[in-house]
Design goal:
It is a single chain. The chain has two domains: 247 residues, von Willebrand factor, type A domain (Rossmann fold); 36 residues, no CATH class. By secondary structure, the chain is α/β, with parallel strands linked by helices. Helix content is 44%, strand content 23%. Helix 3 links the parallel strand 3 and strand 4.
């Protein structure tokens, strides 16, 4: 993601706004509504106890004041809080196609934000790499969503490793009320399954995994120099050798198997985004999968 001046950022905001709204209107609003709305219960009122009411619902404070048993009543949540935890570590800047992983993530984030906006939900944003970099608390409204998109577009990759655990621990301290958390990362970091499991007990966590096809296989192009975007470590490979390409592919397969294990242990759903595939299709498949599971 190259540095942009203000004029470029505003132009890109307008472009992404058009793209995101089209995706929301054509594809996603109905799926989002059916999958996420009413996922919890919120306090509604108190009323006098009647035989057959659940004893655990008794409001003991009101009962003590009035001398008459009262119970709490609840209703389905009418609105949500959506929070995007966005990985800005430098590995996200990699891309072998038109968009890098981070550029793709920005567009996906914008679609999710406008979908939430259409349903009058609050939206917040948390930037992280090896630690939390910036936190913007959830708010409602079009102006808030446009501000978040500007923040996404003007944020530069950070030359630091990914630590999802620290981001989720911070989230646990600042976001007490249940919310939907999209963790957007390439997950090229240490095991975060324990932190994901804890966060998923309080919130509804979704892992948005980002990848590029060149991270899975190497072309036969002779000598190739690879640079780690986060450590600047260089690695030279002779891609003419089938064994070199096979070892690279095996390493990618092992990473994928490890990540699948993390998410399974944490019981967290996965939205898989690949830069060589239309993300709108991935979003649709994800929402339909969630609807079936629900």
């Amino acid at each position: 993601m190259a540095a942009r001046n203000l004029e470029e950022v505003l132009k890109e905001v307008r472009r992404i706004q058009i793209v995101a709204r089209r995706q929301v209107n054509e594809l996603l609003a109905g799926e989002y509504l059916s999958v996420f709305k009413g996922r919890g219960m919120e306090f509604d009122a108190v009323r006098e106890y009647v035989p057959g009411d659940e004893i655990r619902s008794i409001d003991w404070n009101v009962t003590a004041r009035t001398g008459v048993p009262y119970v709490k009543t609840f209703c389905e949540e009418r609105e949500l809080t959506v929070l995007l935890a966005f990985d800005v570590s430098a590995s996200g800047a990699f891309g072998s196609l038109r968009l890098s992983k981070m550029d793709t993530a920005v567009e996906v984030a914008a679609v999710l934000m406008f979908t939430a906006l259409k349903n009058n939900d609050k939206v917040g944003l948390l930037f992280f790499a090896d630690d939390v970099i910036k936190y913007i608390p959830p708010r409602k409204g079009r102006g808030s969503v446009l501000r978040l998109i500007r923040e996404l577009l003007s944020t530069e990759p950070v030359k630091a490793p990914t630590d999802i655990t620290k981001a989720l621990e911070f989230l646990g301290r600042v976001q007490r009320r249940r919310c939907v958390v999209f963790v957007m990362s390439d997950f090229l970091g240490p095991d975060c399954s324990h932190a994901l499991a804890i966060a998923n007990q309080r919130h509804d966590c979704i892992a948005v995994t980002l990848s590029d096809p060149r991270e899975r296989s190497l072309p036969d192009v002779g000598f190739l120099t690879l640079r780690d975007a986060e450590t600047d470590e260089l690695l030279e490979l002779d891609t003419r050798h089938p064994q070199v390409r096979a070892l690279f592919a095996k390493a990618a397969t092992d990473r994928e198997r490890t990540l699948t294990g993390w998410l399974r242990r944490a019981n967290v759903d996965r939205l898989e985004i690949q830069t060589d595939q239309p993300y709108a299709t991935s979003l649709q498949k994800f929402f339909r999968m969630r609807e079936r599971h629900r």
